[in-house]
Structures are given as structure tokens and as C-alpha cells.
Design a protein that fits this description.
Chain lengths: 433, 433
């Protein structure tokens, strides 16, 4: 699709920018993928500049969805309200076995369309058919860390094939799309990869200088399995193997002790909180407030759309805060600004890419959220309005690396109707005939 | 605003309607405020009929928000993330003292605009300046049960004044607006109204043949207060006074024992589950699954927008289901269809008005939800898509008593820009200057 104006510079006028102490109305200039100017006074406009009227809109660094499986939007609603084991064994795994590369491509685009429309600019993905995932990310002009999810008990023929796929994903895609795509190494979990597989994966991550992205302490069963089979908890087992010598993105961290939190904090591990998925699958609620207090970098993720069933980071922030307040019976738990930091800054830190804040020199990954609707007025505190009242559909504009992906709620890089057509003819069934 | 076509009949073509066993595509005719025909075959169209193309849209009985305080949208975001006692004493109560009748009118319209846009057709409200609330409801063409919230320790001068206000609200508004407005009697709670006040309120409810609407077992402090001061729990105390001899709408029911659930089930008490408000204020999570199992009619409510901070029933359904699944660590808890019944049928049953289901002869309170967006496809099971994936902004059309309140996402009875203007000039502060 035509993106001629993308090389020109963009000026966002009169947007609201908020830091820990105050909110102010500013003007931003975006050039060469970066924020080049931020000023409370009007900026000079040159011919060819794209000027956006930002009155009433909050400008944020784009949301970072730090744990997802993009193609799983194909299974959104396939099998809800059933036990976890049945869900996996009888529905999700058989459906995944049948997926083609083309399916994965269209499913990834569907998720990316949903994400961009609700303000996400960067994701950490783990799946297979990674060429299809990467191609979708590249075409959508999104920022992503992609990885091939390794599942192998031993370093036998199958295990070696899995590692080869992971290596190929890194070699083919790390640094692609003008650096917007990066790669990670993903042993799926402690219970789905044997010790030798983990060791080989860690070596490969060292060799390629990429982070690990794995599932950690998601279910009580996982912890019980680890204690029975390895004689220690998943965190201690992975630490002993040397996994945490590499920056690690650890999804879930629901069932972790205080001792394990201290280890996660000492090593460079980011815990990715996925509150909706954990609740919906009946896995419980992660001790987010304790993780933050222990000094762990906590980011936010939706997990795949099969277990969420959405990928809206505003709703995920709200859910994170409300679930913590409810579980701890403490209305001061996980305040708006802290959860907004998790959804933006902490995710970008974990992935080592994208905007961490709105300031000059940062990557221009910027989202505008209209806070002037009947769901959000009156105006008291912008982050409170964002986290507790706003909706994904209040996002009006999304910029990644200085390019519009969404403008006035219209997608720029994805043909939404084509994506829905391709998904609908492959998956689901008509609700009624 | 002009509603000339409202007296004509409406035909909804090819909408999806789903019951416990199946989903089908049907055509609906709406005349004289009722559903007059439902057919899988095309209905004859007469000149002057308003025809709506419903392809891809789920037709539901409108959502019933069974516990709210409409004017409190004025305080949305006023004071989040702080302890409950400070929130009430230092922020909400002082702000409420300053409210004028005009403030309450505009705040009510703001909430009604938000609610209609997200599919709500009926509310149970409790507040003061009830003339303003009722005027807003009447102008919005909404269906509502309104009540004056009585707060009085004794039946002294103040207590009698409070009861007089409650009586006046009933006499002035019960049955108004072609029966769309009904009234209830609202002693605020066990700890804010003395025994004599409760007794007088119960007498008045009997005299006027209106239901009670109160707060019940919302906080641990309320239960502790009741045990200390009355020697029994709030449910037992109210049952002894005879409150439950009248149909009662009991908001919250967070801290209730199995014994108390049995009492609520035996009497005609509806428990209104308010999951987001209970979580956000740190009051915990109501035992919804146990309440339903005990046979209690459980409806759904948002509570006021000061403690939610939204009034979107789709999000409230999702939160109800996910919070129960997470708290019980059971992915089968509160399945989609059951929570959708709570949000529609059970609320209408409790209020004795409005549509309970989509069938001929029912009130034409109908909502269309577009399930064909990038947030909702592909199609597997309509209620699963509605509860776990759809958003308030996917609601396209809202009909109450046979009249459009929303059509193609545009409000018909409320001037949204005027409401925002009036609210913004009275409340909040600009986020930034």
C-alpha cells in the first residue's frame, strides 16, 4: 500500500505528554524514525510536513506486547470454558498441527491489525512457520522480536531439527526490515525441552547474542512436574543450567516464591505478566506487586488470542491493575502510572528496542489516545483515564519508527478486509446459516 | 431531537440469534414497542418500515446494568489508587455535597451516552437529585428503575426528610415516560440507615409496591460493623427486619456465607455482581459461582463510574468470567452463556421490566453487536465471541421499547457534544495547559 509520505517528517501538535510529576501540552517533530524535537512552543512547519492536530490526545510510547503468539488469533473462541488439559490436547494442539505457512501468515496479519488499532507498536512473538510471522510483521511495518518455539525432550534427530529451525530463524530475520525485526531463542518451557536441548539453546543464544524467550512458572502442574522430575523448581533449575546468563523474557511467572523472585531480579530476567490469559485458563494470578518490589523488570503481555481472547494492551493494563487490587484487597496496588510503565517502558527495556519514553532522540514509536470521548471525560489525571477508562478503539494514530501504521483510526499498512476474508474462509464456521 | 420515524415499524434482517443449543440467522419485526415477528424466512416489508441489514451482527436483549449511580461519571478518575476510606471521606463525599441539580442532570446524560453506545438498555440507579436523574433518563428514552438513596441513622427530622424524598421520587416518577421509568426504595445500606429507618422504608415499599435497592455485604468492614453493632451479619439482620419480604436488588454480596446465600435464594433477592468496582476498590471478589449454585438470581452491574471507571457491560461480563476463573483456578467457571444471561435475562427479571430474551411478544429492547471486526473474527461460538473478544464499540444499534437510541454507532436521543461540553466546563481540569 502507498506510503509515499512516510519519508517526510511528521509534526504532532498540542498532544498531552505526562511524566511522573506533571502533564503538559507539547509539539513533537518526528524525522528519520526518531523524535527530533519536543517543545511547548509551536514548531516551525515545512512544506511537505504531515501535521496532526493532537488536541485532547495523550501521546505515549507505543505499547509493547511482550509475550504473544500472533497466529493464534485463528483459534480465538475455538474452545473456551473447558479444562486446560482438554483445551490443549483436544483442541489447540491438533489445530496447530494442521496449520500451513499461509494460515500462519494470515493469522499473524489479523493479530497485527487488531494490535495496531489498539496502540501496540512492538511484540515479542513465539511460534513456528516463523518465516510467515516475520513476513507479516515486515509488511505491517511493526517492530517485533520473533522466535521459533523449540519443543524437544532430547537432542536427538528431532531435537537437532528444532534447534536448526531456531538457528535459521535467527540467521534469516535478526536485524531485518531496517532493524525493526529482531530474533530470540525460544526453548518453549522447562517441561517441554530436555536439559540437553536447553543447554544447546543457551549456547546458540550466546553465539548469536540474542535473548531467550520462554514460558516460566505458568501453572501449578509445571512447578509440580519440575519438583518431581528435576528435584527443584523451574526457576532454580533454569538458573543452574545457566539460562539466566542470557537476558531472558520469561512469560507468566505466576507460581514463584520470594526466593525465586530474588533470583529473577539479580539475573537479567524480565517477567512478562499476562493477567487475562492466566485468569481465563484458571492458572491463577501472578504476584506482580511482589515481583516489582523484589526489583524484577515486569512487562505486560496478552499471550495468544486463543487464551485471552484479545490483544488490546489498554484492557490488559486495566485487568493487571484490577486483578492485583482485588486479589490483595488493596486499592493502592499497581497504580495507573506503574502499570502504564510495564506496558511501555519495561517492555521496550526487555526487548532492547523501540521507544521507552516520549523524549528527543528516542525511537518514534508513538501512539495517540483520544481522551475526550463519553467513556473518558471529564479530565483529571491522564494515566488514570488511560488505564481505568479508555478503550483500544480510543487509539487514533500509531507511528512506528517514524511511519504511520494507523491514522485517524484507519490502518495504513494492512488491508483489513482482505485479512478478514482470508481468515474467515480458512477458519471458524459461520455463527449461523 | 427528531424521532419522527420512531412510530413506524423496524425490520432487522439476517441477525444472528442464539439460544442454549443453537445459533440461527433470523429476521425480526418490531412494532408498538414489542417484537411482533421472528422468522428464519424474509419478512414482508411495508413502505415506511425502517430496515436494518444485520449481516454478521448478533442480536441480543439489551444489557441491564443492575446497579449504578449515573451522575458519578462526573468523578471518573477524580481519585484513583488510594485507600477506600480516604477516597470516600476526602474526595467523593465532599464532591457530592457540592453537586447541583444541573450537575446531576449532565452527569446522568454522560453516563447514559456511554451506556447506550456500549449496548445497555436498562439501569437500576440510586442517587439524589432524582428529578435530574429521571429527566435525563426520560430524554434519553432509556429504561430505568430509579431511587433516592436514603442515608439516616434515626427516624428524626433528617430521617423523615429522607423518607419524604424517597416517597416523592416514587410518586413523581414510578410509571413515567410511558412506563419506561420505574421507581425503587433505597435505604443505602445496613450501616448507613438505622433500624427504624429501615422499618419505615420497608413499610413505604409495601405501600407503593416497589422493590428495594440497597448495598449489601460490599466490604469486610460492613460485615464487622454489623456483627459488632447488631450482633449478626447484614443478611441475617435485614432478613429479621423483614426487608426480604419485598423483592430486593442487593448490590455486591461480596462477603456472604453459604448460610446467607441460602436465605438470599429463598427470598426474592437478586444479588448484583459488580466485579470491576469490587476489584478496583480492593473489596475482593464475590462468590458468584456459589451464589448461582445456591439458586440466587445473580445480575450484573458496573456500580458508579467513580469506582469502575467505565459502564461497558461487555467488559463487565468479561471481567466477571475471568475474575471467577482466576480466583477459583477453574477455566470452566462462569462460562460465556451464563454470564451473558446474568447481564441480560437476570437483570430484566430482577427489575420486572424490559426484554429477557429475543422472542415474539417480548419488549423490543434489542442490541446489535458487530462480530465481524479484527478483534472478533473468526467465528466459532457467538456468546464466546461476545463475552471474551467483543468490545463496547462493536455495538452498532440499540433499540429500547421499539425506538432507536443508537443507529450505526450514532446516538439518536442525546447530543453527545453538548453533554461533553457541559460536563467539561463543570468538572475535571484540563490534563495539561
Amino acid at each position: 500500500m502507498g506510503n509515499k509520505e512516510q519519508s517526510m517528517s511528521i509534526v504532532l501538535e498540542n498532544v498531552i505528554v505526562s511524566d511522573a510529576n506533571s502533564a503538559k501540552k507539547v509539539n513533537l517533530r518526528i524525522e528519520n524514525g526518531l523524535i527530533s524535537a519536543l517543545d511547548e512552543n509551536p514548531l516551525p512547519i515545512s512544506p511537505g510536513d504531515t501535521v496532526v492536530a493532537g488536541e485532547g490526545k495523550l501521546a505515549l510510547p507505543g505499547f509493547v506486547n511482550a509475550h504473544t503468539h500472533l497466529p493464534m488469533s485463528l483459534f480465538r473462541g475455538l474452545a473456551d470454558d473447558i479444562p486446560l488439559d482438554t483445551w490443549l490436547r483436544e483442541h489447540i494442539w491438533p489445530a496447530e498441527k494442521r496449520l500451513t505457512a499461509a494460515d500462519v501468515y494470515w493469522g499473524s496479519l489479523l493479530s497485527l491489525a487488531e494490535m495496531i488499532k489498539s496502540g501496540t507498536t512492538q511484540v515479542a512473538d513465539m511460534y513456528f512457520h516463523t518465516d510467515s510471522v516475520a513476513r507479516a510483521v515486515s509488511e505491517a511495518h511493526m517492530r517485533a522480536t520473533i522466535s521459533y518455539g523449540i519443543v524437544a525432550n532430547k537432542l536427538d534427530k528431532h531435537g537437532k531439527d528444532e534447534l536448526a529451525m531456531a538457528r535459521e530463524t535467527i540467521e534469516r530475520w535478526h536485524g531485518a526490515a531496517n532493524g525493526r525485526i529482531r530474533a530470540a531463542l525460544s526453548p518453549h518451557a522447562i517441561y517441554t525441552c530436555g536439559r540437553d536441548v536447553w543447554a544447546a539453546a543457551i549456547d546458540l543464544a550466546h553465539e548469536k547474542n540474542v535473548p531467550l524467550h520462554t514460558h516460566l512458572c505458568e501453572t501449578r502442574d509445571e512447578v509440580a512436574w519440575s519438583l518431581t522430575n528435576l528435584g527443584q523448581t523451574p526457576v532454580l533449575a533454569l538458573d543452574e543450567i545457566g539460562a539466566f546468563s542470557i537476558p531472558t523474557i520469561a512469560a507468566h511467572c505466576v507460581h514463584v516464591s520470594e526466593e525465586e523472585m530474588a533470583i529473577l531480579a539479580q539475573r537479567s530476567v524480565t517477567a512478562v505478566h499476562c493477567p487475562k490469559s492466566n485468569a481465563k485458563l484458571g492458572n491463577g494470578h501472578a504476584p506482580v506487586v511482589s515481583l516489582l518490589r523484589a526489583g524484577v523488570n515486569v512487562a505486560l503481555g496478552t499471550d495468544g488470542a486463543a487464551s485471552n481472547n484479545g490483544q488490546d494492551m489498554i484492557e490488559e493494563m486495566r485487568m493487571a491493575s484490577l486483578l492485583s487490587k482485588g486479589a490483595l484487597e488493596d486499592p493502592t496496588a499497581l497504580p495507573a502510572r506503574e502499570v502504564a510503565m510495564m506496558a511501555t517502558h519495561n517492555g521496550a527495556e526487555a526487548l532492547g528496542a523501540g521507544a521507552r519514553r516520549i523524549s528527543t532522540g528516542e525511537d518514534a514509536d508513538i501512539v495517540l489516545v483520544d481522551l475526550s470521548g463519553v467513556d473518558t471525560v471529564p479530565a483529571y489525571e491522564p494515566f488514570s483515564t488511560l488505564v481505568y477508562a479508555a478503550h483500544g478503539c480510543d487509539v487514533t494514530d500509531v507511528i512506528v519508527a517514524g511511519e504511520f501504521l494507523l491514522r485517524d483510526r484507519k490502518l495504513f499498512t494492512i488491508d483489513e478486509e482482505q485479512v478478514k476474508y482470508e481468515v474467515n474462509r480458512r477458519f471458524g464456521k459461520a455463527f449461523a446459516n
